[in-house]
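Late entry, evening session. Most of the bench is empty. Finally got around to the prediction I had been postponing all week. Sequence below, unchanged from the version circulated by S.P.
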Amino acid sequence: MSMDRMRALVDRLNETARAYYTLDKPLISDAEWDKMYNELLKMEQETGVVMEDSPTHRVGGEVLKGFEEHTHITRLWSMDKSQNEQELSAWLDRAEKLAAQNDMSAPRYGVEYKFDGLTINLTYRDGVLVQAATRGNGEVGEGVLPQARTIREIPLSIPYQGLLEVQGECIMRLSVLEKYNETHDDPLKNARNAAAGGLRNLDASVTAERHLSAYFYQVGTIENAPYHDQEGMLAFLREQGFPLSPFFRRADSREEVLAAIREIEESRPHLDYLIDGAVVKVRDHETRSAMGYTDKFPRWAVAYKFAAEENTAVLENVTWELGRTGKLTPLAHVSPVDFAGVTVRKATLNNLGDIRRKKLKLGAEVWIRRSNDVIPEIMGCVEDEPEGEEILPPDRCPACGGVLTERGAHLFCLNRQSCKPQAVMRIKHFASRDAMDITSFSEKTADVLYDKLDVRDPADLYRMDMEQLLTLEGFKEKKAQNLLDALEESKHCKLDAFLLAVGIPNIGKRTARDLAERFGTLEKVRSATFDELISIDEVGDIVARSIVEFFSFPENIQMIDRLLEAGVSPEAQKARAEGALTGKTLVVTGTLPTLSRQEAEQLIREHGGTAASSVSKKTDYLVCGEKAGSKLDKAQKLGVPVIDEATLLSMIG
């Protein structure tokens, strides 16, 4: 009987909490809610049973020793940005062009707030919240489930019973911040940092004390989505009990997009939370699929960033920071200036050319903009002809005293081997998780190896032995053996990881994967021409030139040859196969008899074909199963041949 009563209390408390926090419709008084809550708490203490979705989880618990990494099921993408109406108009032009190229109708948009908080990703299985994580690098974040449970807007259980990932923003309301600061000796400076610091606090009771809020706007992963556009997705989220952004406008033209953005900007000073812009998204999900993604962001969405705050300060000094490629980047030191409670003492200067172009001088008063409400940037001098001391670039590397050279607007240190900071950063990058993934390897390790064992580049790592490592402070036999084992394991790596590890300028994970898939072997990548590289999607002039130049420098060739001689063996990756479907574009729709959609698409790619997500005039075949929808209708209208799974299998033999 007590279990039935507990279940009834949990359900009623969750129902009333959803009505209060999500729908803004209180069903009972605070006193009644507290009475039921205390009854449930007492029963849990007496029985030792706490149900998975009990609201008592929200008070916080033991202090964690550290955050565990969580790999998102679906990547959390960054957002393309526009700073003004001209840039937004250019994005709208691109969106319309992409839709037209895929024979889609003109895009229709949804406009919503861009919250200035911390992204949170929730995972539900069988209707129960099982994980919450920060965005991290978009693929791997930090698990913050105990902290997320303290946020009352986050449902601990939902009606939907499949696997579900939901993305949103964790914020602190300005009124809550004000009340918090009235009752605490150590006030919080701004709402954004308060939210981020609260969610990422190892002590969930601290999170609970900050009374954070959350809004949700995107489904990342779902099984059998019951919607096909943004409005349907938002309706689904609302039905599950997720609080949505208070602002959403349909916009079927660019004029309506701009009107919605202006409406948001005008309301900004009156909101009880921070926003730093608006987000414009293509509403139709089939159009989104056709538009696809770049290396960094979806082509079907853009963030319109509002004009940032500006202030003045005195430019007091410029120092030069060294990167792993040897590039020196200037950093401005300014008199303290306040931006919405954040004290700024440093600001970005892009390069030597930036200093010259803006006519900056030491001692001059400068305009500083907290660009995108986050990054401080020097915009220029207040006076057109400022007085002050000329900013002279260093004639030697500030780290090693080596010779510098100018390449375009940038300064580079040429002392690649003996310049300690860049060598240490280069070795750390080589060993990083996304590259060679050498476990337990840190910048401190690279620093010690540089000083004590003369490790100057990644190839030197593979000549170390147990005897050498045991001479290092802090290295016992187990730690030394673990490092040697990790190095040995790293020799058998994938080609894309190796290409990322060797540090080709302007090459990230996505481009490294594209290169590996296109060319298949390291030797073919090394000998690739500019024209061959430029033909790869997402590889432009700058990236292609970086690759060609990298493999033309003798020191890079020598380093790679030494790695190969040490036994590092980048695994050849399959280039796109030549086969029965070479040159053909196929779309899969509906439920196939024996293959999942992913398996069918993989078969298409393995036999040389392109597996597209939407039907157009360029589609050669529609592979159709049961419960096919609009794709079948469109294929029939366009005269695209429709085949079944058996025909597909017979085509590939």
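Two things to note before I forget:
The chain has 24 helices and 24 strands.
The chain has a mean pLDDT of 87.
Will write this up properly tomorrow.
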